[in-house]
Amino acid sequence: MRFPKVGDIIATEEALELCKHFELDYLIARIAANPDRYKSWEFDGCSGLPDEIMGFFTGCNWEDITYKCCLPHDLCYAYGEPGNDMERKRVDQNFYNDLVNKAGMKKWLASAFLEAVRIGGREEFGLSFSWGFAHK
To answer: How far apart are the two ends of the chain, measured CA to CA in Å?
Structure first.
């Protein structure tokens, strides 16, 4: 599996392959049911924090954080069901768990990341990384 680099554009077809890699079956079904509903988007790594300093800042391997935690989280946000805050909470909790269990981040720092995505990723902000951002 080739992972996107920061700045790469993710088309719907590539997103489906990435969802398969991360076993995001509910997203595969959602996207496959209506692929024209979604637009391509730019992978920004870990939104709001430059990847180059990620490892220094967290004491963890930034590639692990970017590709084991942020990329699957971005996929879930991109194709998240608009208005479904329960889904968003579950996705954010999975992000926290991935930071701790897959990237080895300290729990206190993973909690700060969790709070940042809970606040900054709100759908109503309409940002490039807000909940449901790949919807047309």
So the answer is: 27
User: Facing residues of 9 across strands?
Assistant: 42
Q: Tell me the C-alpha to C-alpha distance, in Å, between residue 72 and each of 16, 43, 75.
A: 12, 11, 5
State the Cα–Cα distance between residues 78 and 68, nearest whole angstrom: 16
List, for residues 77-100, the tens digit of each pLDDT value.
999 999 999 999 999 999 999 999
Q: Is 52:17 a contact under the CB 8 Å cutoff?
A: no
Q: Are 58 and 105 in contact (CB under 8 A)?
A: yes
Q: How many residues does the chain have?
A: 136
19, 23, 36, 44, 119 from 66: Cα distances, Å: 15, 17, 27, 9, 20
User: Three-state SS for 113?
Assistant: helix
Q: Compute the distance between CA of residue 49 and CA of residue 15 in angstroms, rounded to an integer.
A: 22
Q: What is the residue type of 41?
A: W
Predicted model pTM: 0.93
Mean pLDDT for 6-25 is: 97
Q: Determine contact, residues 12/40, Cβ cutoff 8 Å.
A: yes
